[in-house]
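Thread: pyridoxal-5'-phosphate complex, take 2
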Amino acid sequence: MEDKGIPKEQIYQMLRKYKEKDLTHRSGRILGSMCTCPHPVGVKAYAMFLESNLGDPGLFPGTKALEDEVITMLGQLLGKEDVYGHIITGGTEANLMAMRAARNLKNVENPEIIVPKSAHFSFKKAADMLCLDLKMAELDDDYRMDISSVEDLICDNTVAIVGVAGTTELGKIDPIEDLSRICQEQDIHLHVDAAFGGYIIPFLKESGYDLPEFDFKLPGVSSITIDPHKMGLAPIPTGGILFRERKHLEAMAIETPYLTEDLQSTVVGTRTGAATAATWALLKHLGREGYREVATSCMDVTHKLEEGIKEAGFELVTEPELNIVPFRSPEITVEELAQRLEDKGWAVSLATYPRSIRVIVMPHLKAEHINDFLKDLETITGD
Ligand SMILES: Cc1ncc(COP(=O)(O)O)c(C=O)c1O
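Output below.
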C-alpha cells in the first residue's frame, strides 16, 4: 500500500484495466453459470441501500421492513405466506442455516443428514462445519433422488433430509412429494434446496408447464432455499432461506448484547441490506408476469438449443426438465469437447454425473448466442 493516495480518476482507470480481463454475461459466452446480468432495477435498488446493515436492524428499520416484505412475497411464491427467514449471501449460506436449524431442533448425539448424490457441495461444507454425518442417497434412472435408497438410510440420528428442486448439474426436481410424506410420518426436517428452481418452477407451472409440487404446499416441507441471485436476476450476493415455523429461526438464535436486536439467527453478523432492497425492487417491478416471461423465454431458448444439439449429432444425457441442457459427443470425450469449445471462446462447465457439458440457459443467453454456439458445435468434431 502506497503512503500517498492516488487521484480517483486514475483509480477508476486502473480498475477498468482489471475489469477488461473479466468475462461478461452480456457477451453471451458464459454457458455454465447459474448467475446472470443483474437487472438494472435491482442494481439501482442495491446501490441505494449500500449503507444499510441488517445485522443491526434497529438502525435500519426501513430496510428491515423491506426484508419482512420480501420474505412474505417469497413465501407467497412458494405456497405459504407466513414463513420466517432472511435474505443472505446465497445458496450455500441458506443450506448451512437449514442444516443448523434441523440439527439444533433434533439435538441427537451423532446427527446425520441424507442428501441425494446430486446435491450441491454446500452440504459437504455444512456437514463439516456442523459435525453432521453426510449420507448420500442414490439416484434413480432419471437422476432424481431414489426414495427406497432414502428409506434405507433413515435412522434415529437422521436430523434432516434434503431434496433438490433444480439440481445444479442437470436441473432435475427430486420427488419432494414422496419425501414430504416420509418426513411427516417420521418427524424429520425436510429441506428443499430450490436455490436454482425456486425462481423458475413456480412461474413455469403458472405458464402451463407440468412440473411437480416442491414447496410449502407440501405439509412435510420445513425449509426452502431460494436464490434471488440466480433466476431472480438480483445482483450477487443475494440468497434466501425460508422456514415454515418461527421455532426454526429460534433454534439457532444467539444473543447479541451490543446491537439493536437481542437475538440473531443468521451465520453472518454484519449483513448487507442492499441485497434485500434489490430483491424487493425486482419482485415489485417484474411481478409474476415479468418473471413468467423470463422463465418461459429461457425455456424457449432451451428447446432451441436442445433441438440444435441433436441435429448437430450430439446426445443429450437426459431430457431437460428446466433450463439446463447436458450433452456429450458420441465421438470425442467430454474433456476434449470442452477444450475445443473453450478454444472457440465459450466458457463451458462440466457435469460430473453423468459426465457431460452442461449449458445453463440463463436469461443472458439469447437466441442469437445459441445460434452462434450451434454453428461452432456443428464444426467442432470434424476438426
Ligand atoms: C442447487 C444449488 N444449491 C446451492 C447452491 C449454492 O449457491 P451459492 O453459490 O449461491 O452459495 C447452488 C449453486 O449453484 C445450487 O445450484
